[in-house]
Amino acid sequence: MTIEDINKEIKNLKDEGVSVKGISDTHHTFADYLKERTLLFALVCNIFPEISWKSRKHFKEEEDPMFEGDFLVGLNTPKGVISFHLKLAYWDIFEVSELERAPYYDKYEKEDVFKRLEEFTSEVIEERKGSLNENRTR
Question: Which SS3 state, helix, strand or coil, does residue 108 take?
């Protein structure tokens, strides 16, 4: 069996209405990874509230209604928005501005998110190094 076969089977299960959140790599389930991503993203957004937001509606809600029980949360990086759909149960852990509508979706894909996160992380690290060096020379 190949990875492609496994992914097809997972898709078939989802199409049949079976929850795949319990699928595990023997250490963590999909649900574990989603919760971990959510909590880490909450940490980042709460550290940078000035560029973070949450919304119960998409930019064009009429054309693209929100998934039932979800909201969008995002970070406006210098290279573009990073956002995730999350369950409303997580709403309160994001202590960021609430927007009437989420910013316009620029059709970014997962590779764009990886690149934006990597670049944002590098910028923050460089900025923090600069601050540490300034404090050391005082």
Answer: coil
Spatial CA neighbour of 75 closest among 84, 87, 67: 84
Q: Which helix (H) or strand (E) holds 77?
A: strand 70-77
Strand pairing category for 80-87 and 97-99 = unpaired
Exposed/middle/buried for residue 41 (C-beta within 10 Å: 0-12, 13-18, 19+): buried
* HSE (side-chain half, CA atoms, 13 Å) at 8: 5
pLDDT of residue 39: 97
Report how far residue 27's alpha carbon sits from residue 124's, in angstroms, rounded to the nearest whole number: 31
Regions of the chain short of the pLDDT cut 70? 132-138
Contact residues for 92 (Cβ-Cβ < 8 A; gap 6+):
none
| Separation in Å, CA 116 to CA 76, 86, 96 | 10, 19, 20
Report how far apart, in Å, the C-alpha atoms of 128 and of each of 41, 43, 61 are.
19, 17, 38
